Amino acid sequence: MGISLNGLNSGMADTYSTLLGGMGGGDDAGGVSSLLGDYAAIKNGSYGKMMKSYYAKMEKQQAEESGETDQKKAGKVKDSASASAAKSLYSSASALGSLNYDDRSEENVKKITDSVSAFIKDYNSLMKSAEKSKNSTVQKQAESLYNSYYTNYKLFAKVGITLNSDKTLSFDEDSMKNALNDTEHGKGATVKTLFGGIGSFADKAVNRASQIYRAAGDGEAVTSSKAKYAGGSSSTSTSSTSSTKDKDKSKTVTDASTAAAANSLYKSIENLGATNITNSNKENVYKAFSAFVKDYNELIKNTDKSANSNVVNQASYLKGLISNNKSAFSKMGVTVNSDKTLSVDEKKFKDADMSGVKKLFSGSYSLAEKMTDRVNNIYRYATQGEALDKKTYDNNGSVNIPTMGSMVDTIL
Q1: How far is 14 from 122, CA to CA, in rounded Å?
Q2: Is the pTM of this model over 0.90?
Q3: Which helix (H) or strand (E) is 275 found in, with range?
Q4: Within the chain, which residues score under 70 in pLDDT?
């Protein structure tokens, strides 16, 4: 009859006990004791659990490190197809903002319809490129643009624009023409609301296209001297058109110093967002954050002196974003001053938990993303004031579109 497992275990235990009992207190005994302790841990399963936990932790750490590296690399991947598509969309979206949506003549209705058709074509091209892109920023910005459409998809459907399963759009020109001529139900005003003003879908497309172009291009920022925006590479002008009426000069005057400050701030926000914001990297985080504070304060000082009313109003909106996060800034040793500039206490900042900084300056819908939108607008107004003189903000930074009420009417 064979030996039972219980008998075998008992016999081995007795053998090891006898072996240990016959040894003195020297090193050999300690070594054997250690080995037997390991054996016991293996036998009862605790050693296996410990090793599984250890390797699981190591795998997670390696995955996080690899993912972080891959994410940084993905954000820098060149994507010429998406850059080209973004440039085209920037152009067609900007063109929609300069149209006269109140002129319902047959010729102008056709002009608007053709412009919307060109915009939809460019939008679809960008969505297809972004879908294939390996650049994480391109993907994120394209998704944000899609979300802007989806938020108002019912309104778009009323004027002939519907969504396809691949996030591209279909366009019915006849429905658009009918909507433009429909004054009784306000559909013509809805077209203007969707495409004709600051805060409209077309205006958001301009911002997103600009950011996609910057991320997907050759590394040259759209706001740099070599590539001012996705639609071209003209240099900053320092004079306004002489034929502009005096009452409009406050809007159309260009502002080189503010444009330069906006360019610097845009880059420092990007640099802070690309920094590894962790408690183990506080020195580098503080360095990037200090540069952000310096450039932000410089822009605020320039906008306070600007003669361009649109620049001033955009800056007001930017200050509002900062004020809304006053409590979060305070926790990291940052003070929002009375003039809405920032001051940072190095010691308090480095003593703070960097998760608060990361929350503000990383990811979609973060403070950083909202700020870059406003800074980009300030740059556009400061360098292209004349082209954008019909687009205004009120003193609180809110959208000032006469037909905004029609959106509510259309929904109802």
Answers
A1: 82
A2: no
A3: none
A4: 1-76, 186, 197-198, 217-253, 364, 384-412
Q: Which H or E run contains 46?
A: helix 46-74
341 within 8 A of 301, measured Cβ to Cβ? yes
Q: What is the pLDDT of residues 129-162, one digit of tens each?
A: 999 998 888 888 889 888 888 888 888 988 999 9
Confidence (pLDDT) at 368:
87
Q: Which residue is it, tokens 């001053």? A: 337
Nearest to 249 by CA among 203, 197, 199, 310: 310
For residues 117 and 169, give the distance between their C-alpha atoms in angstroms, rounded to a whole number: 10
> What is the residue type of 411?
I
Decide if 209 contacts 89 (C-beta within 8 A). Answer: yes
Q: Is 161 helix (H, G, I), strand (E, B) or coil?
A: strand
CB 334, CB 349: distance < 8 Å = yes
Are 226 and 234 within 8 A, CB to CB?
Answer: no
How far is CA 331 from each of CA 49, 73, 327, 348, 368, rounded to the nearest angstrom?
A: 40, 31, 7, 8, 17
- Could you give the CA distance from residue 188 to residue 99 in angstroms, rounded to a whole number? 13
**Per-residue CA distances from 267 to 120, 169, 220, 295 (Å):** 30, 33, 11, 9
Q: What is the pLDDT of residue 285?
A: 95
Question: HEC states along 71-135?
Answer: HHHHCCCCCHHHHHHHHHHHHHHHHHHCCCCCCCCHHHHHHHHHHHHHHHHHHHHHHHHHHHCCC
- Cα–Cα distance for residue pair 215/269, rounded to 1 Å: 14
Could you tell me which of 215, 221, 393, 404 has the C-alpha nearest to residue 319? 393
Give me the pLDDT at residue 47, please: 63
